[in-house]
Amino acid sequence: TPTWPRCRDSSVSCAADNSTSGNALNDGEAGYTSQAESTLMPNLPKTLIMDLSNFYGGASSRVLSMLTRFPSGAAALAGLENGAVTREAKRLGLPVHVLGSRKTDPRILPRLVRLIRTEGFQVLDPQNIQSKFYASLAASLTRVALVSTINSWYENEHGGVSAPAEIYTTL
């Protein structure tokens, strides 16, 4: 199991405790300073990574890894209230915004649009097809950049042809 650093900056709204237990890394420790924190990327856009999955998988590990490598305040996670990646990100002290309680929660889109506008996110990076659905709508309403990272194919995971599969494939 990887050891993830906890939130290091009080200006970032961290959902978990900010204790400095044995798995917290400090700014000067080897392996944590990201390339983004160096002078090579001074104008990094503020990024909202979306993961509306319920269970933990490879994409979840990727999301947590990405979040720990952004400089403080440059990225956050938007997820489901009881989603596995949301719970883990909160436990690690990473910045998390809860959009809803389930993938079909009607509050997701309005919350996402409000979050983008109030927090000044410039890039949306959805990690699964359900996230892509909401992110596509929100990007068209807010005119933020959309980067799609789809880590699975809906039809392969859920089998057969269905209305959701047709909609998600069209996206």
Provide structural commentary.
Helix content is 35%, strand content 13%. With 171 residues, the chain is α/β, with parallel strands linked by helices. The protein has a five-stranded parallel beta sheet, sandwiched between helices. It contains six helices and five strands.
Largest sheet: 5 strands, parallel
- Percent of residues in beta strands? 5-15%
Alpha-carbon distance between the two ends: 34 Å
* Residues in helix, %: 25-40%
Q: Could you state the order of secondary-structure elements as H and E? A: EHEHEHEHEHH
The gyration radius over C-alpha positions equals: 16 Å
Global morphology: globular
Q: Topology, pairings included?
A:
Layout: E1 47-51, H1 58-69, E2 75-80, H2 84-91, E3 96-100, H3 108-119, E4 123-126, H4 129-142, E5 145-146, H5 154-158, H6 163-170
Parallel strand pairs: 1-2, 1-4, 2-3, 4-5
Could you write a compact summary of the structure shown?
By secondary structure, this protein is of the alpha/beta class.
Q: Which terms summarize this structure?
A:
171 residues, alpha/beta, disordered N terminus
